Description:
This protein has about 270 residues and is α+β, with helices and mostly antiparallel strands. The chain has helices at about 85-90, 130-140, 180-185, 195-205, 220-235, 255-270, and strands at about 1-5, 10-15, 15-25, 25-35, 70-75, 80-85, 100-105, 115-125, 145-150, 155-165, 165-175. The chain is built from 6 helices and 11 strands. The longest helix has 15 residues, at about 220-235. The chain is extended and about 60 Å long. Mean pLDDT is about 80; it is low at about 245-255.
Amino acid sequence: MPHKNDEDQEVGPLPFWSGTITFGLVSVPVDMFPAVQTRRVSSRTFGPEGEQLARRYFSEDGILLSDADVVRGYELDSGRFIVITDDELDKLEPRKSRDIDLRRFVKRDEIPFSMFERHYVLAPGGESVKAYHLLALAMERDELAGIATYVMRGREYLVAIYAETGLLFGANLRFVDELRTPKMIGLPKVLAAEPSDLRKVRSAVKALTARSLDTKLFQDDEEEALKKLAKRKHTQSQDVIEIGAGDDDESEREDVVDIMSILKQRMKGEKA
């Protein structure tokens, strides 16, 4: 959500994390923003009288458990579970840091699509944008991505940093052991194809190939239909439930347009 400065002016959303990209003797301060905004309609569960429902944990005997009664179990390959305490988890947490430790540069197309998880906008932090501009320019020209790690909320993340249109972006990466192999899924072996069959398939693919990407292909028709249904029922005062003010969770609602405006303003702040 946009916030206001000391002069009560709206200046766009606040970053949810700030740090410094570091490698060698290079340091580039950055602010991190979500690269996407949540559009899906939020829903909650209610009882027959319109009361909001909450999740609770019960034992097999039907006894209500408190948070102190709930323990974590780490599952082994054998199917057994090992109890892990909160103190033990705290000791395993990575060292707190504000550095994005850039370990290696690779060609962007060497990173499989299946490894990308969540994308971010990296805005230049601090007063100077010269180092930010130079790094983005060098990476974009050479089509490179930087593989780095950073710590946020007690957890270490693997991230790919890349550049587009003179700006830096980041994408959380999945770890290798999270990806399923074709063998794990049970996919059949690749068989040799007859030339005639291959020509038929290539012809069918060509018939659906467009010269440019149509963004309408990425519209969520089901979500739009759900929104229209909810608005129609609200207009007709049908099945409307009133809840207390201030209950809506808007922590994930970030305006991408405002974020890009912040980037442009900061890039104009100091010419490289």
